[in-house]
Fold this protein.
Amino acid sequence: MSSRLLPFLISLAVFALDRATKIVVRNRVDFWETFPVIAGFFSIVHTENRGAAFGILADSTSVLRPIFLIALALGVMAFIVVLLLRPGHAGLSSTAWMRWGLALILGGACGNLFDRIVHGAVTDFLEFYFGTYSFPAFNVADSAITVGAGLLLLDMWRGQSASRQKHVPQTD
């Protein structure tokens, strides 16, 4: 399988899993209904986020909010597609870690963009608790974006580590 095709297949798989889980939640869980999975730690809850990550801009009433969020997502997705089609371009590494990270981010961005365009909000349903703290609800797409960003950070760290090792003077 072509190394250029694999990231797009990964993105498609993330998008499909995200869509499937959101369809189940939208069809089977009433808005704000909660199903404890692990009492005091993890629940399935149906929420809709009209803003960005963690509800940023969710309270905005501006007609430009959805346009801004859609345009931002499209811009990021276009940039990622260019990076995936031109590995090694502009000094960027073309490691597997980077390709996987970009693929996960692209698939997650597509999933959330689909929701934003079709439903006007992103469906979130995974909610974790730590004592009295409740982490904001999220979804499969958000998870893929987070893991993808982590892989990009690891790739950058590994690249810097390797670069430093090349430039360390050898002592005999």
About this structure: DSSP finds four helices and four strands in the chain. The radius of gyration is 19 Å. The helical segments are 6-28, 64-85, 96-119, 140-166. The chain has one domain: 6-166.
